[in-house]
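Following up on my earlier thread - several people asked me to post the actual chain instead of describing it. Fair enough. Here it is, all 274 residues.
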Amino acid sequence: MAEDSGKPPQKPYDYLLKFLLVGDSDVGKQEILSELDDGAAESPFCSGSAYKTTTILLDGKRVRLQLWDTSGQGRFCTIIRSYSRGAQGVLLVYDITNRWSFDGLDRWLKEVDEHAPGVPKVLVGNRLHFAFKRKVGERDAQMYANRHSMAFFEVSPLCNFNIHESFCELSRMALQRNGMERLWRSNKVLSLQELCCRAIVARTTVYSIEQLPLPTCVKSYLKSYALTTTSTQLKYTHSQRKSNGRKLRFISTPTSPGGDTRTSCVPRNSCTIS
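Reply from S.P.:
Thanks for posting it. Predicted structure:
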C-alpha cells in the first residue's frame, strides 16, 4: 500500500490540446460543442467565452481537448488575443445559410494569423441540416479552405454529422505539427486490411502473390505492400552492415615464377574480413 501511494496518479489522457472556435455570432459554435461529451463536471464560464473539455480516441491514444468558444461579437476580439496564447488548433465556423458569416471569415483568419501564426486550422460549415436554405456553396467553401491550407467539413449538430471527425482531423494536424506523431504512430490501431496484408506477405513471396485466388486490385495492393516492406528491411540491413565499419579485401593465391601453383589454405580470390 505504501508503494502504491508513492506513485503519481495516472493521467486519464495521453495528450492535451487547446483549440479555439472562432466565427461570427449565431453561427452555432455552442451547438457544435453540445454534441461532444463533457469531460469535466464543471465547465468554467467567463465573459464572452465558454470553455469545455472532452476526450477523443485517436489511433488508440486518448487526446484531451480544451475547447474555447470565443464570442463572435466585435467587442470580444481581445478575447482571441488572450486565449490564442498556447492554442494548438483553430476551428473557423460559419453558417451555410448565412452568406455574411462566410464573407466575414477573412477578418477572423487575420486575427488568428496575427495572434496564433502557423497553427492548424479547420474550416467548418455548420447547420448542414438546413441545406435547403443554403447560401454558401460547398465548392466555394472548399476552394477557400484549399487557398488557406485548411481542412474542410460541413457539419450538422442536429444529427451529429462530421463533428467528431472535424475535431479528430484537427487533433491529428496539431500532433503532426508538434512532432508528436512519431510517438504514437507505432502504437496506433492497425486496420483489418493491413493486418491481413501482414499475415499474407509474411507467408509468401512477391512473385507467388500472382498465383493467389484473389481479385486483381487486392493482388496489386499486396504487391506494393510487400515491395515496400522488403525495401524497408533491406535499407535497415544495409545500414547495419555499414555501421559495423568492417571492410572486405581480396587475397590472391601467390604463384611461383615457374608457373607451378603453390599449395595454399586460402583459395584464389577469396575474401577475408579485416
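Residues 159 and 247 are 67 Å apart (CA to CA). That should answer part of your original question.
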